[in-house]
C-alpha cells in the first residue's frame, strides 16, 4: 500500500478499502497523464450510474487518479446495485450512505446531509456526478455549498418535460457545475443555448465504452453477425413514474405488451412490481414472460438475443441503438434523439401505439456513431486533469 502523502490527504474515516490507493499505473499510450495527486470523488447511487462509473473508475486507475467512490444507497437490492459492481469489476464503494428509498425531498435531503460530511472529510479536487438521479442533484448541491469544484458527466441532456424528476435534476446540476461533460453534439448545443458553453466539453458517452466491451464478451461466437433469430423474444422494461403510477395507463401498457406476437421478456423494476400489486394488475399475462431486473451483462445479452426492445429507460434505448436492435420508447419524448434516426427508435407516447410501433420492420440502414468512439472515459479523466 502506498504511503499517504501531501496535505490534502486525510486519514480515512470509513470504507472497506481504507488507507490510500495503491501505486499509480501508467497511462495508456496517447492518454494524458493526470497528476497522481488529483483527488476525485465520484458519487453514484442508482443502477445506470454504476454502469457509467465502470469505465470511468478504470480510466481513473489507469491515470493514477486518487479516486474515491461514494454510494448514496439510493438503490440497494443486490440486483439493482451489488451485481453491477461485481460484474463490471468496479472497486467497492469507499462509503455507502445507505439512504434508501423515500419521497424526492426526504431522499435528496438525506443524501445532501450525508454527502456534506463525506466531502468535508475527503476535501476532493473534483466532485464528479453522473446523469440525472436524485443522487446527482444531492451531490451537486453538497459540492457547491462547500465550494468544491463540480463536474457533471452526461451534461446537457434535455427532455424539455418538466414533469420528469430527471429533468429538474439535470438542469439544476448543469447550472451548478464548473465542468459540464457532454456526451453528444446535441447536448453541447443545449448547454450553449443555456449560456454554459464556457464550461462545456464534448467527451462522448461513457456508456458506449462499456456497452461494446460487454457485448463483445457476451455475444456468442456463433452469433458474431449479430442477427437475432426471427422468432426471438422482445425485451421490455417499464419503470418511469409517468408510466407506472397511473393505474389506467399502466394497465394499458401491460395489455399492449401482453398482446405482442411472440414472447416479451419483461424485466420488472421494483417500482413496477409494487405499483402493479397496489393496483391489482397482473404482470404475468399473454405474451409477457416476467423476469427479475437483469444484471448488466445479462441485459446486453438479452438485447442481442431480442428482435427488439420496448422501454422507457434512457440507457436501454441507447443500448438497443448501439447493439442494432429496433427500440420502441413508451414516452412522449426522448433525450437521446439521435436514436430516432431512420426509425431505429420510435416513440409510442400512448399505450395504444405500442403494438404497431414494436412490430414495425427493423430498419436496415447503417447507424451513425453519435455517442462517441468508445473512449469517452479517458477523455473524462483528461478533462479533470
Ligand atoms: C431512479 C432514477 C431514474 C433512473 C432509475 C434507474 C430518480 C429521481 N430516478 O428511478 O432516473 O432511471 O433510478 O433504475 O433518481 N426500490 C427497491 N429496491 C431498490 C431501489 C428501489 O425496491 O434497490 C423501489 C422502492 O420502492 C423505491 C422505488 O423502487 O421507492 C423507486 O426507486 P427510486 O430510486 O426512488 O427511483 P427509480 O424509479 O429507481
A few lines on this structure:
The protein has 385 residues and is an alpha/beta fold. The protein has 14 helices and 13 strands.
Task: Describe the protein.
With 385 residues, the chain is of the alpha/beta class. It has two domains: 2-17 and 37-202, Glycogen Phosphorylase B (Rossmann fold); 213-358, Glycogen Phosphorylase B (Rossmann fold), CATH 3.40.50. The chain has 14 helices and 13 strands. The strands form two sheets. A seven-stranded parallel β-sheet has the order 3-2-1-4-5-6-7, sandwiched between helices. Strands 10-9-8-11-12-13 form a six-stranded parallel β-sheet. The structure holds uridine-diphosphate-N-acetylglucosamine (UD1). The site of uridine-diphosphate-N-acetylglucosamine has 18 residues, from helix 1, helix 5 and helix 10.
Task: Looking at this protein, list some descriptive labels.
single chain; 385 residues; alpha/beta; Rossmann fold; 2 domains; 7-stranded parallel sheet; 6-stranded parallel sheet; 14 helices; disordered N terminus; binds uridine-diphosphate-N-acetylglucosamine
At CATH level 3, the topology of the largest domain is Rossmann fold
Bound molecules: uridine-diphosphate-N-acetylglucosamine
- The oligomerization state is single chain
Rounded to the nearest angstrom, the distance between the terminal CA atoms is: 24 Å
- Percent helix, as a range, is 25-40%
> Could you state the order of secondary-structure elements as H and E?
EHEHEHEHEHEHEHEHHEHEHEHEEHH
CATH superfamily (homologous) name of the largest domain: Glycogen Phosphorylase B
Q: Could you name the ranges where pLDDT drops below 50 across 5 or more consecutive residues?
A: 1-32
Tell me the radius of gyration: 21 Å
Report the principal-axis shape: globular
